[in-house]
# Entry
Amino acid sequence: MSEALKTSAPTLTPAALPSADLEIKDARIIFDPIWDDLEAHFGRQHLRFPKEIILLGGAPGAGKGTNTAFIAKTRGLTCTPIVMSSLLDTPEMKRIKDAGNMIGDREVLAVLLRRLLKPEYRDGVILDGFPRTKVQVECLKMLYEKMTQLWREFYGTPLAIHFRQPVVQIVVLFVDEKESVARQLKRGVETKAHNDEVRRSGHGQLLEERATDFDEKLARRRYRVFKEQTWDALLSLKDVFHYHLINAEGAFGEVEQNILEELEYQSSLELDPRTYDRLRLLPLASEIIVHARQELVKRLDGYEISHPEVFQRVVTLIEKKMMPIITRHALSGHANINSEDTVFDEPLALAMLIDIFSERGYHAVVDVHRIEIPETVDLKTGKITCRLKKVYRCIIRFKGSEIRRG
# Structure
């Protein structure tokens, strides 16, 4: 490097550091001592975090509470979500708030990391309400980096199953400001009606009445806070983790369909890279069915052109011997048929039978059962000679008929 370049580079003091660098520095000051404390308390081999962490965010009225259970079901998670507002409602946290102090990033992170180590979250967990600040965003990146280090460190060891490749997904349920405000105010009306009835009858439980649900200005302000804080925090992670922005403005069923489309299983995302590389040569079911109809037509025409005699024998077998049995099972839609017909000695006959049934709208499965039948006995040696008998077991399924009773 030239002297000119050396002298032109400014020396950055903390006050002169870009805000992003300051946030990273602040996050490191918070994160490192908490991580060191975890290692000292639990031991590195017991720092077993969830395989998958879903960061759930949503505009006010977007339906986080309504859709959390469905998101968990979609991802196959059975544990209860971690809701930061509830997690920070412990006696210890209440004492901090009662003393007039704010719950800072350090307290939030310390409580969260210990909760994530609980065994019920090993496969995955939905995390509602984190991160909310830019410092928390940087702490999340540091946590992911540590989880990845653990995965690599323990790979190939007896503990590897406890340290799988981590996956972090961001799910944001979004509605625009107009819809958010309308839903908040509607919730206020419904909550008030419910609580009035509980007070009148003495039955049921009172619901929380939020001030923002009864004042349009407050509802709009709450939406703006979401856009300026939570939205920005999650959006800043878009290029780091898997990001899903879900339209939550439609009807209940439409929103669920949007969630399904966004969170469907992706093997390249969820499997360990080595596992994925081993399996990826096998075609997906969705791939082999794309041209299945055209391939079926091509095979059937090929049978007729190249092997007409065998093709006719298989058709005759189905028509004369199988269809009468199938017809008698029209109500159940399920017929089991055994056959020893010699046509199946032809190599293509079984493939023809399956394809013919498929073209006619049936589902056919054929299993070859080999039976050794004793035929002769050598009186001198006692050796028994057996004949091999092949029985072709055909399972034919189709949509059965319904009986409607008056």
